Amino acid sequence: MMDPSDKRGARDDDDGAATAASKKRKTMPNTSFIWDHFQRSEDKKSIACIHCVPLGTTIFAYSGGTSTMTRHLRRKHGIFAPGKSEQDYERPPSSSSTTLSFFDKASDERVSDDKVPKPRHIKSHHSRHTLQWIQYVTTRYASLALDADLAALLHKGGGAFQPLQGAPLRTALLELAQAQRAALQTYLDAASPALSLSVHEWTSSFGVDAVVVTGHWITEDFEQRQCVLDTYVVMPSDKDGAVVAALRRVLAQYKVDVVGAITVEPQWHTPALAEAFPDTPLISCLVRQIDDVMLAALGVSMPLVLKARQLVVAQHDDHAVVVELDQPQHWWSTLEMLQQPSLATHPSWTSDEQQQLHALVALLTPAYTLLKQMASSSSAAAPPLASLVFGLLHGILLLLLKNAHAKPFLALLQPILHRSNAPLALVCVLDPRFKTLPFLGAAEKQQAIDAVVAQVPPKPSVPSSTQAPPPPPTSSWSELYPFDDPHAPGGGDMQMYMDSTTPNDLVEPLAWWKVHRHVYPDLAGLARKYLAMSPIATPIDELLQVQHHARKKDIPPALVPAYVFVRSASRVPELVAATDAAAAKPATSPHGRYV
C-alpha cells in the first residue's frame, strides 16, 4: 500500500507537471510568433526587431519572455499576437488618456470621435501605418503602392498593417513633406547655421531630369547634418540653366545670404556658375572625377573585362559557384566581379592576362576602398568627409606612383587634386587629423594657414586712457598668456592650435572641436563652416547602391520632390522632433473645438 505522503508527493508531481505543461502551452504560441518578427543575435542574448529599419535600431535582451516584444510589435507596428486584436488592449473609459500621440490611433468602433482629440495630421485610424509605409518606401525609393504580394505577407504577420492607398496615400505623402519643410524653415531661421550646398541630378525614366539641392551644416553641438532643401523637375533641354536657377531659388526660399561652398557635378563647374556666385568657393564632385579616371582605366583593359564577363556567364551553369555580373556604368561593380576567387583563379587566363588582371585590380582597389569608407560615413554621427577624402586622395596618388601600370592615369588624377586644392586645403587645416598638411608643399601649406588666419577676427585692443575699461570675459587661452602679440589677427590661437598634440588616428574632428570650442572660439566657428563642406554632390547613402539608382528613376515626376525631401528629412533629428511635436499638438477649429 502506498504511503499517504507518497500519494501527496505524486499528486504534487502531477500538478507540477501539469502546471509546467500548461505554461508551456501558453508560451509556445507567442514564442513561435516572436521569431516571425525578431532576429536573434549570435550569442542568443538579444533579439532585434526586423520591422524597425535599419535592422538593429530596436534591440531587446532575451531570456525567454515575450511580453516586451509583443508589446513593441503591438504599439509600434500594429502587429498582434495570434488570437488577439486591438480591442483586447483598449483601456477602460476611466483610464483613457486625454491626449493622443502622433503614432496612436483610435478605434472607430469603441471610442466616439467627439471624445478623442485628433492631432493635426491624423486623418484616420490608418495614419500610423501610413507614416510607417511612407518612411519605408521613401528610404528605398520603392513604389508607393502596396503590391498584392507584400500585402499578403504583411497579413501573415497579423493582418493589422493597413496604410492608406491610392490618392489618400499620395496626399499623406505631400502633406508630410509640407509639414517637414515648414519645420526645416523654422529650424534654419532659429539656428542660422553656416550652410554649404551641393547639387546633383538624375534622369527619370519619364524623360525628365531631377535637380536636387542639399544643404550641409554643423550644429552648435558640433554634430553633422545634411538635408535636401528642394528638388526641381526640369526638361532635359532646360538643364543647362537649371543649376543656377535652382540655387538662386533655394537661397531665396530659405533666406540664405552666404554659403560656405557649393559642390556640383564636374560638367557644371563652369564660368557661368562662377560668375553667378563670385564670392562662393566651387568644388567639383570628387566621386564623379574619380569615376571618370577609373572608367578610363577599364576602357584600356576592356578586352580583359569582356573575357571576364564571358567567364562569369559560362559559370552560371555551375550552381555551386555564384558570381554576379557587373554593371558596366559602375566601375566598382566590375572590380567586385574581378575580385571573386573563382574568376581570378580561372584556368582560362593566360599568364600575361593574369598579370594584367592583377595590375588592374591593384589600380582600382585604392579608389574602391575610399568609396567604401565614404559609404560607411552616411550616418549623422560620422566624421566630416571633405578633409578625409582630400587627404586620402593624396595618399592614393602616392601609392599609384609606385605602380608601373598606373602611370598613364596619374595625369588624370593629379588635376583632380589641383582643382579642389583651394577650399579643401582650408578644410584640412581645421581638421585636427590633417592640420599639418603633410601632403602639400611648404608654400601651399602656408598659403592655406594664412587664409584661415585672415578670417579670424582680431582681438579687441584696450584704448589708451587713464581709466581702462574692465576686461571682457576671457574667450580663449591666449588671453591668459599675454606673451604673444595680442594684436596679431588670430595668430596666437592659430599657433596654439597648430602646436597642440592631436593623434590623427584617434581623433574624431567634431568631437575634438566640441571639447575645444571654448579654447579656440574663433577657430571653432570657422571649423563649423568649413567642415560642413561636402566633397561630393552625390548623396553619401546612395554610394555603392545600384538598386537605388534604378528604383528612383521610376518615381512619378509629380512625387519626386516629396519622395526625396521626406527621405532626407527623416534622417535629421531636429526635423523629426519638430514634426512629431507639431503633429502631437491638437488642432482646433475657428470655434475652439478639436477638429
Automatic annotation (TrEMBL):
Residues 1-11, 105-117 have a biased composition (Basic and acidic residues). Residues 92-103 have a biased composition (Low complexity). Residues 1-25, 80-123, 458-484 are annotated as: Disordered. GO terms for biological process: post-embryonic development. Pfam families: zf-BED (PF02892). Keywords: Metal-binding, Nucleus, Transcription, Transcription regulation, Zinc, Zinc-finger. GO terms for molecular function: DNA binding; zinc ion binding. Transmembrane segments: none annotated. Residues 34-77 form the BED-type domain. Its main location: nucleus. GO terms for cellular component: nucleus. It is found in: Nucleus. This is Aste57867_466 protein. It comes from Aphanomyces stellatus. The gene is Aste57867_466.
